[in-house]
Design goal:
2 helices; 0% strand; 132 residues; rod-shaped; mainly alpha
Length: 132
């Protein structure tokens, strides 16, 4: 073989070496590179900042909800007290109305008894007039 002739195997170039390396790494499912870049740091800081922001936002929302709950409890207590007072007042009014009704029924009964007595007297007088 002469030196002018090309050998059957080509000389490996950087590209072919890289291809061989990537061919072996393609067989792996995951490939981790241990180097840390600015993008990794920025991503981690962003995640931490967003997590802290969400935490404090949730904490402040809970504080507002607790305040609202306390106000609603106070309002409910106030309404319950007013309802109890109105209920007592209504009970007193009903007792007064029942007493007045009993008095009126008693008066009506007395009036009816008087009316029946007068009617009986009138009937007796009529009978006495017609019988004489």
């Amino acid at each position: 073989m002469s030196t002018c002739q090309k050998s059957e195997e080509p000389m490996p170039t950087n590209l072919s070496l890289r291809r061989r390396k990537t061919d072996t790494t393609r067989k792996r499912i995951l490939n981790f590179d241990p180097t840390v870049h600015a993008g990794h740091v920025m991503t981690a800081l962003t995640i931490i900042a967003c997590s802290l922001g969400a935490w404090y936002d949730m904490k402040s929302s809970l504080a507002v909800l607790k305040e609202d709950n306390a106000r609603q409890e106070m309002r409910i207590d106030k309404v319950e007290m007013e309802n109890k007072e109105k209920y007592k007042e209504m009970q007193e009014n009903l007792a007064t109305i029942a007493m007045l009704q009993r008095e009126e029924v008693s008066k009506l009964r007395d009036n009816m008894n008087e009316w029946f007595l007068r009617l009986g007297d009138k009937i007796e007088r009529k009978v006495d007039k017609n019988g004489k």
